[in-house]
Amino acid sequence: MTDHKADRPRHTGRRAPGGPGYLRDDRSGRAPRAGRPPSDPARQAAYEAIAAVHRDDAYANIVLSDILRGLGLSGRDAAFATELTYGTLRALGTLDLIVADAAGRDVARIDPPARDALRLGAYQLLHTRVPAHAAVNQTVDLVRSVAPGAAGFANAVMRTISETPFDEWLTRLAPAYDEDPVGNLSVLHNHPQWIIRAFAEALGGDLDDTARLLIEDNQAPIVHLCARPGRAEAVELADEVDGQPGAFSPYSVYLNGGSPRELSAIHQGRAHVQDEGSQLVAAALVAAPIEGTDNRWLDLCAGPGGKAGLLGSIAALRGAEVTAVEVAEHRARLVEHATEGMPVTVLPMDGRSVGRDPDLPEESFDRVLVDAPCTGLGSLRRRPEARWRRQPSDLPALTKLQRELLVAALRAVRPGGLVAYVTCSPHLVETQVTVTEGARRSGVEADFVDARTLLPPGMPKLGPGPTVQLWPHRHGTDAMFLAVLRRTA
Ligand SMILES: C[S@@+](CC[C@H](N)C(=O)[O-])C[C@H]1O[C@@H](n2cnc3c(N)ncnc32)[C@H](O)[C@@H]1O
């Protein structure tokens, strides 16, 4: 195993800044070439993960764990590779501005393998305490192995970047806050401008508060566990895993570190990994009292099964049954796995036909969860590449699907029953607009229930209701949105 002691990064405490956008590339799958050994294994792993994200649209967490396993990396090397991969992907926008400035050309005009190696090198120079000479030499070695003709160019670019401290790069490249506040925040806090505007709108136009959110989005999130009701108690689970009971959800436990995969509570089905905000919105659906029958519950967008796992555990205690619908077959199988031993029936089908399907006719459920597919802008902390990959052009198709799923849910619930509409995005178009429009188009009469009353008492900063928007910088959760509707006729 390579010893990185000499050039191991120590966190500078600086947060990654942001910039212009995401550049997909069209290179064919080129890995470091044989011959001169490329860089060291941790940097090689990070390079391969970053290249796969840009070349293949891979998810960083999935591809990186495959690469680490393939290279046999663990411990400090794996941690270093993870820090480099996630840090580089998160900081991409501003790294690209800096690389372009140092190279004297737009990054779109740099050969993709050299471009990714330079991004990784710039990250080491500007965001870690890897000594400059090590960052430069390792990057040039890496470029020599993946884009041999560009080694001299990479050397010049890296040296130029290393001559200017990070703060000076920001001053040089960020527009003045007074003239262009969103442009400034984008470079300083490393988010695309359209996402900052969407956050600011959802936060009532408060740019100071928006900046607090952006800073929080750049922190590595704590892993939350859900202690499954009837199978585990949060306090005991916290002791068992050396964690802490969560602040709000009665089921949540915050892990202090380590991999949740190793925990026997997970293997034994007593707990699952789930953001506390997701626990809260799923539990809210079953917290509201209803009159009449209360044993037919529906999870309309169930994959991969986090909320179905919580609802299924509660259903087992309350004598209810959950129907879990998921359109993607492989995700439906994940739901089956996540709900083993629970009163949950998984149906791989399009949720939009629910309420019209002879087997799932209108008015056949007492409670329905619509955890709609969305942009995921509320969980950017967990997906370092997502902010640069998502585009505003993703919104129309998603919001159409969200509306249609909400209409199906309102059809499927019986009068007096409840529908919870949930997204892990705070974008107003996916939250307030979808709910208002979906409810209007459904032709079903429904009233809002004040969702604040369905969350644990004493939760701060829940706004004026009746819907609730959770936030990373206010609640330590993903930015989950919750609206609860009761069908009246
Ligand atoms: C936000 S995720 C749900 C997360 C899940 N509730 C959990 O807690 O693990 C949205 C899910 O909806 C599924 N989906 C997308 N379109 C759908 C449709 N028309 N009908 C049913 N499921 C759909 C997606 O495949 C995805 O698994």
Automatic annotation (TrEMBL):
Keywords noted in UniProt: Methyltransferase, RNA-binding, S-adenosyl-L-methionine, Transferase
SAM-dependent MTase RsmB/NOP-type domain ranges (all copies): 199-488
Binding site for S-adenosyl-L-methionine: 301-307, 326, 350, 371
Stored InterPro entries: MeTrfase_RsmB-F_NOP2_cat, MeTrfase_RsmB-F_NOP2_dom, NusB-like_sf, NusB_RsmB_TIM44, RCMT, RsmB/NOL1/NOP2-like_CS, SAM-dependent_MTases_sf
Active-site residues, record numbering mapped to chain: 424
Ranges annotated as biased composition (Low complexity): 31-43
Database matches in SUPFAM superfamilies: NusB-like, S-adenosyl-L-methionine-dependent methyltransferases
Listed GO MF terms: RNA binding; RNA methyltransferase activity
Region (Disordered): 1-43
GO biological process terms, semicolon-separated: regulation of DNA-templated transcription; RNA methylation
Regions of compositional bias (Basic and acidic residues) in chain numbering: 1-10
Family of the protein in this entry: Belongs to the class I-like SAM-binding methyltransferase superfamily. RsmB/NOP family.
Protein purpose: May act as RNA methyltransferase.
Protein's UniProt name: Fmu protein (SUN protein)
Organism: Paractinoplanes ferrugineus
